[in-house]
């Protein structure tokens, strides 16, 4: 084999190996501001239910995963611009979002519920909510639900993160917030949330949470297959039980 042919053969081998390496590593997008589903611990590590699920899926797909964080408001554009390969950040599957990204099968189900101070006679019917100052996270199902249903009747305050909404609730700037029940469940057990409680019934019973990928990406099928596997072999239940004393699937 002459030098030119040898060079071409080596180059082709490197190209194939490089593609294989690239296929064996994926970037997982998370907000990292939504405990207990995704947040940073005291050491700065990104942790939570979403992260554990994402890592379990990567293990089943036999790929290395790197965590990439993004602000919630720009998290779908970040996925579309290829800052990460899939988005596992407690995102509700909605028709509007499904127009711009593809979702896997749901990996948990959610509910929306009002939270207000313990002892307050806070009622959640439309007439009682008129004039109330209600908080929610911007660009979430809870924020959209409030805007659509009571946008003209309540003083709606939207926040960049759920943590900031909780801060204003504890400081008395809000009468209540509407938030995801399972994320709020964790907060209500904390020192900050001990004086607050759920009010009324859940207002959204069919909120399904999925993993988002770019439109047409075959990664969705691989993630769905891996999700089925971790549910079947008990891995999902172990992760669920780490965070909740009840199933959220």
Write out key terms for the chains shown:
249 residues, alpha/beta, D-Maltodextrin-Binding Protein, domain 2, 2 domains, nine-stranded mixed sheet, two-stranded antiparallel sheet, 10 helices, 11 strands, 28% strand, disordered N terminus
Explain this structure to me?
The protein is of the alpha/beta class. It has two domains: 3-109 and 208-243, Periplasmic binding protein-like II (D-Maltodextrin-Binding Protein, domain 2), CATH 3.40.190; 111-206, Periplasmic binding protein-like II (D-Maltodextrin-Binding Protein, domain 2), CATH 3.40.190.10. It is 39% helix and 28% strand. It has ten helices and eleven strands. The strands form two sheets. Strands 1, 4, 5, 6, 7, 8, 9, 10 and 11 form a nine-stranded mixed beta sheet that branches. A two-stranded antiparallel sheet has the order 2-3. Strand 2 (39-40) and strand 3 (46-47) form a beta hairpin. Helix 2 (49-61) packs across helix 9 (219-232). The protein is globular. The N and C termini lie far apart (59 Å).
SSE blueprint and pairings:
Elements: H1 3-23, E1 25-30, E2 39-40, E3 46-47, H2 49-61, E4 64-69, H3 75-80, E5 86-92, H4 95-98, E6 101-103, E7 108-117, H5 126-129, E8 133-137, H6 141-150, E9 155-159, H7 162-170, E10 176-180, H8 181-188, E11 196-214, H9 219-232, H10 235-243
Parallel strand pairs: 1-4, 1-5, 8-9, 8-10
Antiparallel strand pairs: 2-3, 5-11, 6-11, 7-10, 7-11
Helix pairs in contact: 2-9, 2-10
């Amino acid at each position: 084999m002459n030098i030119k042919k040898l060079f071409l053969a080596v180059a082709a081998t490197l190209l194939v190996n490089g593609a294989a390496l690239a296929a064996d590593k994926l970037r997982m997008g998370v907000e990292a501001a939504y405990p207990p589903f995704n947040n940073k611990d005291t050491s700065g590590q990104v942790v939570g239910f979403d992260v554990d699920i994402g890592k379990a899926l990567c293990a089943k797909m036999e790929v290395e995963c790197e965590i990439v964080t993004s602000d919630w408001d720009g998290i779908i554009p970040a996925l579309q611009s290829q800052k990460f390969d899939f988005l596992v950040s407690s995102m509700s599957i909605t028709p509007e979002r499904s127009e711009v990204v593809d979702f896997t099968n749901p990996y948990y189900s959610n509910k929306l519920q009002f939270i207000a101070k313990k002892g307050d006679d806070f009622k959640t019917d439309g007439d009682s909510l008129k004039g109330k100052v209600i908080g929610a996270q911007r660009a979430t199902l809870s924020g959209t639900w409030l805007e659509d249903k009571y946008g003209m009747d309540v003083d709606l305050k939207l926040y960049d993160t759920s943590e900031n909404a909780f801060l204003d609730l504890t400081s008395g700037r809000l009468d209540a917030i509407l938030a995801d029940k399972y994320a709020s469940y964790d907060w209500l057990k904390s020192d900050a949330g001990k004086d607050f409680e759920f009010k009324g019934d859940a207002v959204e019973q069919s909120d399904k949470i999925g993993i988002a990928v770019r439109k047409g990406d075959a990664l969705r099928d691989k993630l769905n297959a891996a999700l089925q596997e971790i549910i079947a072999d008990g891995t999902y239940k172990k992760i669920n039980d780490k965070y909740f004393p009840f199933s959220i699937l």
